[in-house]
UniProtKB/TrEMBL annotation:
Residues 24-429 form the Aldehyde dehydrogenase domain. PANTHER family: ALDEHYDE DEHYDROGENASE (PTHR42991:SF1). GO terms for molecular function: lactaldehyde dehydrogenase (NAD+) activity. The keyword Cell cycle does not apply. It comes from Haloarcula salinisoli. This is Aldehyde dehydrogenase.
Length: 461
């Protein structure tokens, strides 16, 4: 890939046209520390204008057949794949992720639109026959109509993947969309919205980068939701938020009858920069005390293969922190855990912004790292002494993005599934259940998203 780039300029888009922003921010190139992009940020007025324009485009979207929306998604899929190198380069530079991970994220974004197109093409007719005491055999039409305008809020950690996860079903359902992108990582999302706008009704998609400091100054509290709240309060109602809850992290439970080689490989698979791991955050490992040392030994061997370095090197799996403060934060987590009784097995220190791959065993449940739930090159391992203890630990705290269970006892795996609050649960051993990967929207999830983004209207005939 040709990595030579000129500085990019990113601006808000309202009613299909680029507009001036209320502020400006530089996006540093994570590979050179030079300026990669200059982004014009929006404010309450910009968001309100984008919402109004997108709302006005909804009637036009309603006039399109479902099959036409499927065609949009297919064309967007092709556009993402055609510009994959450009999107990958932007992700490496602005998000600071290794190129292999960035390429996977671009492929994931294309897959989202492809999945929505497949589901839209397979939808069956909405006619229903009904009977009452006074009328028999009449038809009613149960139509799914758009909610109106959907706010899509990509994450800083995986901006392109999360933008696609939200944009594809929102547009497939016929809604207008306003993308409130983080100013820290706006470039890949701006390219995606450019691709989308080529195929949907004019003004249907707005794009407004929002800077955190500007949001706080405007509303007295941070976050893109604050700006949207202010815009809605100004008279632009009817906005639905569609965003993934990316907190919660992942949890892996390893019981004494587990295949330890398989467990260690699965925990370390892809490194901390894999798309699923970046979305899910810290992988907390819960292991029976009788096999903790054996698992940690195997896990340490896999973590030793995690490599940092040049983000454009295909073998790099560990991205540097965005700044020195990020590396200091990880060092604090290690110090906090070891002070509370954890054992440092590997790593634990930084070389500039690059934090060395780290394994901690005997990590107590009150370690600060376990509450952070961000994707890091630190793998914390906590022992348990009984099945009940494992269930209590897994169920404690905030919901998990995903849980993996390694045991041959199906009944125990089902006990874990019942006890935890998690988005997906993968069972390994005793009849494996295929893993539900976070980076994809399968048909079931597309149906769920389309249902959430429409309301039903019954028309009697």
């Amino acid at each position: 890939m040709d990595v030579a780039q000129t500085e990019r300029r990113v601006r808000p888009v309202v009613a299909g046209e680029e507009v001036d922003g209320s502020g400006s921010a530089d996006v540093p190139d994570q590979t050179t520390d030079e300026v990669f992009a200059t982004v014009a940020t929006g404010d309450q007025t910009t968001v309100a204008d984008a919402v109004s324009a997108a709302s006005g485009a909804v009637p036009t979207a309603l006039e399109t057949a479902v099959i036409q929306r499927a065609t949009w998604c297919e064309a967007i899929t092709a556009g993402i794949r055609n510009r994959s190198d450009e999107l990958t380069d932007a992700l490496v530079r602005e998000a600071g992720v290794p190129i292999a991970s960035a390429r996977e994220e671009a492929a994931t974004a294309a897959a989202q639109f492809d999945s929505v197109a497949d589901v839209l093409r397979s939808l069956t007719g909405p006619y229903r026959t009904w009977t009452t005491a006074t009328e028999a055999g009449d038809n009613s039409l149960v139509a799914a109509v758009p909610l109106g305008v959907v706010q899509c809020r990509p994450s800083v950690r995986a901006p392109l993947a999360t933008a696609a996860l939200q944009l594809a079903p929102s547009l497939g359902a016929g809604n207008g969309v306003v993308v409130t992108a983080p100013a820290a990582t706006p470039v890949a999302v701006s390219i995606l919205t450019e691709l989308v706008r080529e195929h949907v009704p004019e003004a249907a998609v707005g794009f407004v980068p929002l800077a955190a400091d500007a949001e706080h100054a405007l509303t007295g509290r941070g976050g893109p939701d604050a700006v949207l709240d202010a815009a809605v309060a100004a008279g632009r109602a009817g906005v639905t938020r569609f965003q993934q809850r990316l907190g919660g992290g992942t949890t892996t439970l390893v019981f004494p009858d587990a295949d330890l080689d398989a467990a260690a490989a699965a925990i370390a698979d892809g490194g901390p920069s894999a798309v699923e791991r970046r979305l899910a955050g810290t992988c907390h490992v819960l292991v029976h005390a009788s096999i903790q040392d054996e698992l940690v030994e195997r896990l340490d061997g896999h973590i030793a293969d995690w490599t940092g370095g040049d983000l454009f090197d295909e073998t790099t799996t560990v991205a540097p922190q965005r700044d020195a403060a990020g590396a200091d934060r990880l060092a604090y987590f290690v110090d906090d855990a070891t002070t509370k009784g954890a054992t440092l097995v590997r790593g634990g220190s930084a070389d500039g912004r690059q934090f060395r791959p780290t394994v901690l065993s005997d990590v107590p449940a009150d370690a600060a790292l376990l509450e952070d739930r961000q994707s890091t090159p630190i793998v914390p391992v906590t022992p348990f002494t009984s099945d009940a203890d494992a269930l209590d630990l897994a169920a404690a705290g905030r919901p998990s993005q995903s849980v993996s269970v390694f045991t041959a006892r199906h009944s125990l795996a089902m006990d874990v599934a019942e006890a935890v609050d998690a988005g997906s649960i993968s069972v390994h051993g005793g009849g494996d259940v295929p893993e539900d990967r976070l980076g994809s929207l399968d048909g079931r999830r597309v149906h769920e998203a389309l249902t959430r983004l429409t309301r039903t209207k019954r028309v009697l005939q």
